[in-house]
Design a protein that fits this description.
Elements lengths: L13 H6 L3 E8 L2 E8 L5 E6 L24 E3 L5 E4 L6 E4 L6 E2 L6 E8 L2 E8 L6 E7 L13 E6 L2 E7 L5 E7 L10 E6 L5 E4 L5 E7 L2 E6 L6 E8 L2 E2 L4 E2 L19 E3 L5 E7 L1 E7 L5 E3 L6 E9 L2 E7 L6 E6 L5 E6 L12 E7 L2 E8 L16 E5 L13 H7 L4 E6 L8 H4 L9 H15 L8 E6 L1 H12 L5 E5 L5 H7 L7 H5 L7 H7 L12 E6 L7 H14 L3 E6 L9 H19 L6
Parallel strand pairs: 31-32, 31-33, 33-34, 34-35, 35-36
Antiparallel strand pairs: 1-2, 2-3, 4-5, 5-6, 6-7, 8-9, 9-10, 10-11, 12-13, 13-14, 14-15, 16-17, 17-18, 18-19, 18-20, 21-22, 22-23, 23-24, 25-26, 26-27, 27-28, 29-30, 30-32
């Protein structure tokens, strides 16, 4: 007997989605063990550090999470002897926890820290102080003996300013330090610069770069850095004489893929040099590929299960720790020997059942502004049958950022829908990373136009191909993706419902309330104020809420400092005033992105119930 799309029984409950696929936050080789950071949804998203021996290194209630640049990253590291250094989520102080001991603070209360790195026995960090006017940030060296916990004069400031800093790296002999910096008013993928200085102080030398990422030393006189002087982020070798470059950086990789993407968090690592001079790197063209780069520049693919958002977390000899997700496996952490090919799943990384979770189909659609890239997840359930004359409903997903990208990864969250008979289309609209600078810059000055045109083109293309019921296509997104959701509903004509998670409704309100890191982001995406105020008003979904005539579900975190609740509340009030079918749900303890298992479960079940009501099917929870 056939069952309507959307009503199929499914083994993917909201609770199983919340508990699935660990969120890995960095990994390290420590002696004979492997340590990794992991978010624990059942403990309200607390980030712990675990060991391959089965030990939890960082016990509750401690949580390793940074708030630097609001998005954090690099909140823990460890030395070879097994001493853990971490930023506590509660007070943002750096702590040291020696084996068998309790954590002790290394920094005073007040500033936030992130991007931790231990090299040559020295602890480096990015520090952010929001108590100053203007706010200041710095790269600092923190004494590991605890002497600076009460007396901050012991913390050595390597570089400081009101701009932004990332990726400090000491030379092998410890005499020089490299880092990446960008100025207020720019985003790091627009313009970021490589700087080098003597680690004990002195003049700072800038190496000519366009959008530098992750400097790594190959020797005391040579380093490698990612940059995109043309269109794609590639690796470049920089030869040095002291702290000055001998010549222009030399390309190591061909310009047909990206090594690197938007520097939203401080812990990302897209490549690592091995001790013998080879480099393990990730190259992205929609999906990721891991390669081994020989000193002469020859690239060899490394066969690994991960092909999405891969991070090269650590190296030891020929062994590499890779975290990420994959099109045929769950998210996880792998130890890969690049010489023998041996691959061991340390955490997660289980093969998925292709009957329930088939590989996403990469599709390209011709849009108003050029090709639009997307990944389609058709409904899949080996136990279900449907009437031949019924087409499935679809949910079009819009990622945040908007400078982010999706990779077609296997996802229990997507299977939650597809196993019930609801297709998913994940769109990399213009502005997404993973396809080069020109694709990314398609959105410059046209946020709210190009992204909306592209998701509409993708959805329409799916319907025109006879793959989706054109009357039952919903759109769902969070943060910047929520903005596109609301903007697309204002446009009307394609989407029969919308789900906005902490979405932007009013640009002027966003600019007035947002944090430092993104304070000038909208200048590039729309234009600077006050000159472009008319554009801000015209493009804001709140201005045209009277044009939204389909049901809307609004989900919001009460402690969101990136897109505060006032945004969702404003659009909810506007819809209520006109009697538009909508629901507004506030999760008081959540921030920007839902981390608690209870919230994840409730949000997914509300979304499914909402879609069932709007699209007239009886979902199974």
């Amino acid at each position: 007997m056939s069952s309507p799309y959307g009503s199929w029984p499914s083994p993917f409950s909201a609770a199983s989605v919340a508990a699935s696929s660990p969120r890995i936050e960095g990994a390290r080789f420590i002696g004979s063990e492997i340590w990794w950071g992991e978010s624990v949804p059942a403990e309200k998203g607390r980030v712990t550090v675990r060991s391959s021996s089965g030990t939890e290194i960082l016990p509750a209630p401690w949580s390793a999470r940074s708030r630097v640049h609001e998005y954090g990253g690099g909140a823990w590291t460890a030395d070879a002897a097994g001493t853990l250094y971490f930023v506590d989520a509660g007070d943002q102080r750096v702590h040291r926890m020696a084996p068998g001991a309790v954590p002790v603070p290394l920094t005073p209360a007040g500033p936030s820290h992130g991007g931790l790195r231990v090299q040559q026995g020295r602890l480096l960090a990015v520090r952010e102080d929001l108590s100053t006017a203007p706010h200041t940030r710095a790269i600092v060296e923190i004494p590991i003996d605890g002497s600076a916990a009460e007396d901050p004069s012991g913390i050595r400031v390597i570089v400081e300013g009101d701009g932004f800093f990332a990726h400090p790296a000491l030379s092998p002999d410890g005499t020089r330090i490299a880092w990446v910096t960008w100025n207020r008013g720019r985003m790091p993928w627009e313009a970021a610069h490589l700087h080098i200085a003597k680690s004990d102080g002195g003049d700072v030398h800038e190496i000519p770069t366009r959008a530098a990422l992750q400097p790594e030393w190959l020797s005391d006189a040579e380093l490698v850095v990612a940059d995109d002087p043309d269109d794609r982020w590639g690796l470049y070798r920089v030869e040095l004489d002291g702290v000055s470059s001998v010549g222009a950086p030399r390309a190591l990789t061909p310009p047909d893929a990206d090594t690197g993407y938007g520097l939203w968090v401080l812990g990302n690592r897209w490549y690592r040099p091995l001790a013998d001079g080879r480099i393990v790197a990730v190259r992205t063209n929609g999906r990721d590929e891991v390669v081994l780069i020989a000193p002469d520049g020859v690239l060899r693919p490394v066969d690994v299960p991960a092909d999405g958002h891969v991070s090269v977390d650590d190296v030891d000899g020929s062994r590499v720790l890779l975290s990420g997700n994959g099109s045929g496996v769950t998210a996880g952490l792998w130890c890969v020997d690049v010489d023998s090919g041996e691959t061991v799943a340390v955490r997660g990384g289980e093969p998925v059942d292709a009957d329930w979770m088939p590989r996403a189909l990469p599709i390209d659609v011709d849009g108003r502004h050029g090709v639009v890239h997307a990944f389609a997840y058709p409904p899949a359930n080996p136990d279900a049958t449907v009437s031949a004359d019924e087409l499935p409903p679809y949910v079009v997903l819009v990622h945040g950022g908007p400078t982010a990208h999706v990779t077609g990864a296997a996802s229990a969250a997507n299977a939650f829908y597809t196993s019930r008979g609801i297709g998913v289309l994940d769109v990399n609209y213009g502005g997404s990373t993973g396809y080069g600078r020109r694709y990314r810059e398609r959105l410059d000055g046209r946020w709210g136009v190009v992204d909306v045109d592209d998701v509409i083109a993708a959805a329409q293309g799916l319907a025109d191909a006879g793959l989706a019921d054109p009357s039952r296509i919903a759109i769902r997104g969070g943060s910047a993706g929520g903005w596109t959701v609301l903007s697309a509903l204002v446009r009307g004509g394609v989407f029969a419902a919308g789900i906005s998670r902490y979405g932007v409704a009013d640009l002027r309100m966003l600019v007035a309330e947002t944090h430092d890191f993104e304070a000038s982001y909208i200048d590039g995406l729309v234009g600077p104020l006050p000159e472009y105020e008319d554009v801000y008003v015209e493009r804001s979904p709140l201005t045209h809420a009277d044009r939204i005539g389909v049901p809307v579900l609004l989900l919001q975190g009460g402690e969101d400092r990136v897109v505060p609740p006032s945004q969702s509340e404003a659009i909810s009030d506007a819809l209520a005033a006109r009697g538009v079918d909508h629901e507004y749900v506030l999760y008081p303890a959540e921030g920007h992105g839902f981390r608690s298992a209870d919230t994840i479960v409730d949000a997914l079940e509300r979304e499914l119930t909402f879609l069932g009501r709007v699209f007239r099917f009886e979902p199974t929870l």
